[in-house]
Structure prediction request, 336 residues.
Amino acid sequence: MPENVIKTDQIIRHNWSVEEVEALYALPFADLMYRAQTSHRENFDPNAVQVSTLLSIKTGGCAEDCGYCPQSVHHEQSVKAEPLMPLDKVLENATQAKEAGASRFCMGAAWRNLKDRDLERVATMVTGVKDLGLETCVTLGMLEDHQAKRLKEAGLDYYNHNLDTSPEFYGDVITTRTYQDRLDTLSYVRDADINVCSGGIVGMGENDTDRAGMLVGLANMPSHPQSVPINLLVKVEGTPLANNEDIDPLEFVRTIAVARLMMPKSYVRLSAGRESMSDELQAMCFLAGANSIFYGDKLLTTDNPGMDHDQKLFSRLGINAVEGEHAAPAKEACSH
Ligand code: SAM
Ligand code: DTB
Ligand code: SF4
Prediction:
């Protein structure tokens, strides 16, 4: 093979060192983008992006102290606490999301951990959403082994639980649960044969080594998360990180590109923070290998670009929305 042709079909690696990843980050931008784009094209349709819609099924009043989060009771002006949403309202939202073109519906709860008293209600929501023909995802804080198994049985396709940052920087952002707690939850999710959705946040005041460390934490898990959300910090007033300095947007693009190179078969999600990004910056993230987004004008409690805007962006870029891989056919579609 001529030397200038890059062969990026790397074996799936779980032994990355932080130094190696820092070296990827430090590549000239065009070289990094070329490598990421080459890997992306070897593993995915480069013009297809998966879309999920988020719904907050239990908002506010969370006991954790995550420095970025408006739902923590530890911060002033945190969002108002609400009870767990009733099933019919969840299904109404899921139906609308499906009609609008989402293939996955992700339900988030502002909980430190899932309590057994809520397990059956959430399991019923999962089954109901699955029966609409959508892929299902939940993010409910820490889980126990038996809870993960029950959610799988109910039809859960993905569990979102982020490492958020590097092990070294983690304690500067969250003090009420440990990095190891997060890894434990993720291992229960994997053992229950639920797809793992795990990523982190960029722009919290971490340094370059922390960004590399976060990606090493994700890629060196026993298997790569099937979905890797890369969030740009949404600065919410009243949270300790509200006045953080903006990061160089090209550092965010580099994070997407390096995640794409390290986890070549995973969906990399251009996650929170799109509301503050230009269309051109988002286009660069897609070029760097991002191939999923949250779709709909709300994330959990903060704003996301409107559907019209995203449809226009997809059309300008020639992007198509990916069909769900794990979704059940909608009940009505079954022939009897
Ligand atoms: N309470 C559960 C938990 O923390 O595991 C689930 C919901 S929590 C809101 C899910 C993830 O959203 C967090 O791990 C964090 O990565 C992300 N997130 C929360 N607030 C954010 C913000 N202001 N900007 C970017 N990402 C944020
Ligand atoms: C993830 O990594 N990002 C999403 C999802 N997982 C649950 C959440 C982003 C939340 C942004 C702040 C908010 O809307 O409250
Ligand atoms: Fe609670 Fe999750 Fe927000 Fe942390 S990120 S405060 S656990 S809702």
Confidence is low (pLDDT under 50) at residues 1-6. The radius of gyration is 19 Å.
